[in-house]
């Protein structure tokens, strides 16, 4: 038998008639425990070094790794582990440690940085099999979330497997089947434009144009021309005819972002377009028919804006035929590690060569942070950390989140109110057996408001 290297692993891959697991186990194990692994549903393959282990990982797509660290720490072993961690999909690694190695500070740090769990010698095969089973289950969930995400909306970079996101994906598919206007609400940075694009690309208009206009970013004197176009000579500097964004979107979809910032005088023109499906260019007299679907978005409360006279009530109801709320990142914390890894992979060309991923402390910090800037802020922090980090694994300090991991997770007043509101709605729905009219009366709200709340909280009927 060959003498093993300091890092030696045994790998396994499932075969169809056995459990869908894989095992990477230490080369130093005797034949007896390997036989027990196989009898328990593992198909075992052996790799003597990081190079051959990496080839096996790429070939079989393993989910679990068991690596021996009992010969002690060395920079070579650490480098080999670093290289293995970047190969393949989500793999949960388990370390095999001797009692003496548990006292080695560098080994302990390496295990904390790279491993899902550890097993202390002498070998207790039944206990180790339980640990490996848990690791496999966690890896399987990571694969499931990633695969489901890619199947749902992966091409639009809408990443998530949380209940809130799965509900959003379902609503997008439903709204894509019809041609009615949709009002998309959510905080800045949550991905409202990606949501609109996802609706467009799943609709019958997918082959038509998708035109996005940020109503809050245009000067007030240019919004009319931008949306509806103008004729030559309509104003000083209008040297030729301009086709507006609405007309340019014929056969497709126009997305009006930050619709709450649209001036009142232009709200009248937009309302006329929604009612009659016609526009008139600035300086023109011809009424032009346009076949365009309208998707609008805002981060402000339009109902309050209507009450304050800042937004036309009739336009609000024209735009809000269908409503879609995009959840804030703090409302889907389960997705944060997945999002962080997604953007780490996406911008991998920008990172320092030595940076291999996120430390557990960094992941905890990100999960505990409230992300006021939502996904946009997460992208910004991850990209900056990838460039500036001088360590193998990104730390909370690299992300600018020092101290966040240790802070207790306490709900904000808004979160507490939302949780209480959701619980109250669910309780009354159970009492009325999902009778929406009775539920609305019990709660003292209109049916329209009840529908909106049910959609906001992703309550299943």
The CATH superfamily of the largest domain appears as: P-loop containing nucleotide triphosphate hydrolases
Distance, first to last CA:
63 Å
| Strands ordered across the widest β-sheet | 7-8-11-6-12
| Backbone CA Rg | 28 Å
- What would you call the structural class? alpha/beta
Molecular shape: elongated
**DSSP strand tally:** 14
Any idea of the CATH topology of the largest domain? Rossmann fold
**Helix coverage percent:** 40-55%
Weakly predicted, low-confidence segments: 1-17, 149-156
The biggest beta sheet reads: 5 strands, parallel
Mean pLDDT: 81
Approximately how much beta-strand content do the residues carry? Answer: 5-15%
Helical region count? 19
Indicate how many domains the architecture comprises.
Answer: 4
* Top CATH class of the largest domain: Alpha Beta
Describe the secondary structure blueprint for this structure.
Layout: E1 9-12, H1 31-39, E2 44-47, H2 50-60, E3 64-68, H3 75-85, E4 92-97, H4 105-114, E5 117-120, H5 125-153, H6 163-176, E6 182-185, H7 192-201, E7 210-214, H8 220-228, H9 245-248, E8 253-257, H10 264-276, E9 278-279, E10 288-289, E11 293-298, H11 302-307, H12 313-319, E12 322-325, H13 336-346, E13 357-358, H14 360-368, H15 374-388, E14 393-394, H16 396-399, H17 413-431, H18 436-443, H19 447-456
Parallel strand pairs: 3-4, 4-5, 6-11, 6-12, 7-8, 8-11, 13-14
Antiparallel strand pairs: 1-2, 9-10
